[in-house]
């Protein structure tokens, strides 16, 4: 699996988690709307396949039982699912799609016509892939689709350790080759390192290695506990180790001049320094608010980590619109932990990652295990000022801008972080 947040469990067990399992009764009167309900997601992660040629220790694939691991590459009904998923994305005016898996390049030939449909309808595409299956021909086809950015994964600059964690000999060499091909063909590549206790000391050396390949953007992201894991305690970072990871990223930025990031949403009360708070603590969970995941089987989930399904894009099962409406609890305060009741940032932070909390407690309403209730969260060191447009001035729209009507007005979209 390429990127830790690229796919989540799509097993038969996962498909049985429905909205009613978590909200069997009408929501309490005290439930309060926190985020506006958009007519459809702004962005979608589309999982083309559950199959992957790797079995990374941090990924749900590793923790599957033997029967689940034997799923065929081209599962029954794959083209029909591609057809309805792409049609639903287009008809609901989604702006951007991240193509992921499993390993999406494994079914690239079969998916290409449907990805082309998205591109032809003005939908921006990006790719999450381990790049072990990238060829120059595929790189050119990706450019033809309008894909300009790829997020890939490397767990260590050391081939021995990386291949051990990926459970496939030759992974390090194949990923490195894929990165080089992508860069040579003019595709932007960011490398994410999923960090566990096994590779925690390797952050700096891994960043230095990817820089030697020509990569300019490096992220290190704490491994989330796979929901189907039996025991992840040997791999999960402690709070102290998590802090070390963030400080190593600061060192990478300072000494290697790489753009650094951490790609998950962390509870705001975890950060104990202003520098780490400002750089890594400003993400807001977009699951069910501006984004969702369409699984390989057509089921709609809040995000790629989640196993809870809220509908399906398939015919007769409600479609993307109905599933999006069913995600309403993720837009209210229904899932904010009681422990966060007095926090001034609770509506932004929401008690940290809901799926991380669920993996360890069995409840979507539990606090993220990395919450630190000893001290209040640090505020941003600077606030974003509101822009004011003079009615007397002349201005023009960005040439790539897209628009969508909403009940409250509309959305203007340039990129997933500029809309």
A few lines on this structure:
The chain has about 425 residues and is of the alpha/beta class. The protein contains 13 helices and eleven strands. Helices cover about 30% and strands about 15% of the residues.
Global Rg: 21 Å
Mean pLDDT: 88
Q: What coarse outline follows from CA principal-axis ratios?
A: globular
Give the C-level CATH assignment: Alpha Beta
| Helical fraction | 25-40%
Spatial order of strands in the largest sheet = 7-6-5-4-3-2-1-8-9
Largest sheet: 9 strands, mixed
Number of strands: 11
Tally of separate domains: 1
Strand content: 5-15%
CATH architecture descriptor name: Alpha-Beta Barrel
Q: What is the name of the CATH superfamily?
A: Aldolase class I
- Give the CATH topology: TIM Barrel
* Annotation field: number of helices: 13
Helix-strand sequence:
HEHHEHEHEHHEHEHEHEEHHHEE
Amino- and carboxy-terminal Cα gap: 30 Å
What can you tell me about this protein's structure?
- By secondary structure, this protein is of the alpha/beta class.
- The protein has one domain: TIM Barrel.
- The protein is built from 13 helices and eleven strands.
- The strands form two sheets. Strands 7-6-5-4-3-2-1-8-9 form a nine-stranded mixed sheet. Strands 10-11 form a two-stranded antiparallel sheet.
- Helix 3 runs parallel beside helix 4 and helix 8 runs parallel beside helix 9.
- The N terminus is likely disordered.
- This is Radical SAM core domain-containing protein.
């Amino acid at each position: 699996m390429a990127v830790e947040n690229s796919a989540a469990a799509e097993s038969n067990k996962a498909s049985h988690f429905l909205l009613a399992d978590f909200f069997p009764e009408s929501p309490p009167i005290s439930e309060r709307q926190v985020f506006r309900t958009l007519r459809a997601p702004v962005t979608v992660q589309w999982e083309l396949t559950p199959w992957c040629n790797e079995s990374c220790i941090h990924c749900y694939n590793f923790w599957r039982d033997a029967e689940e691991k034997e799923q065929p590459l081209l599962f029954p009904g794959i083209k029909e699912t591609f057809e309805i998923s792409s049609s639903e994305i287009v008809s609901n005016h989604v702006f951007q799609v991240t193509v992921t898996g499993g390993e999406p390049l494994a079914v690239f030939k079969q998916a290409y016509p449907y990805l082309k449909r998205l591109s032809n309808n003005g939908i921006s595409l990006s790719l999450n892939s381990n790049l072990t299956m990238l060829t120059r021909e595929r790189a050119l086809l990706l450019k033809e689709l309008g894909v300009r950015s790829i997020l890939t994964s490397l767990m260590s600059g050391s081939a021995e350790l990386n291949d051990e964690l990926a459970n496939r000999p030759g992974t390090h060499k194949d990923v490195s080759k894929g990165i080089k091909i992508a860069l040579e063909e003019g595709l932007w590549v960011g490398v994410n390192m999923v960090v566990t206790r096994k590779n925690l000391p390797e952050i700096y050396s891994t960043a230095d290695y990817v820089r030697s390949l020509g990569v300019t953007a490096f992220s290190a992201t704490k491994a989330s506990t796979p929901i189907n894991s039996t025991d992840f305690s040997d791999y999960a970072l402690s709070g102290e180790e998590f802090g070390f990871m963030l400080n190593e990223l600061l060192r990478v930025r300072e000494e290697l001049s790489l753009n650094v990031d951490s790609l998950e949403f962390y509870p705001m009360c975890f950060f104990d320094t202003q520098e780490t708070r400002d750089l890594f603590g400003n993400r807001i969970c977009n699951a069910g608010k501006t984004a969702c995941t369409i699984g390989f089987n057509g089921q709609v989930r809040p995000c790629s980590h989640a196993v809870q399904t809220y509908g399906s894009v398939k015919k007769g099962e409600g479609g993307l619109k109905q599933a999006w409406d069913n995600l309403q609890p993720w837009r209210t305060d229904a899932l904010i932990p009681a422990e966060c009741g007095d926090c001034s940032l609770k509506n932004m932070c929401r008690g940290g990652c809901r799926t991380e909390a669920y993996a360890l407690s069995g409840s979507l309403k539990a606090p993220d295990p990395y919450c630190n209730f000893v001290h209040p969260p640090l505020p941003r060191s600077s606030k974003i000022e509101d822009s004011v447009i003079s009615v007397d001035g002349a201005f023009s729209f960005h040439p790539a801008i897209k628009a969508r009507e909403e009940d409250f007005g509309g959305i203007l979209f340039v990129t997933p972080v500029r809309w």
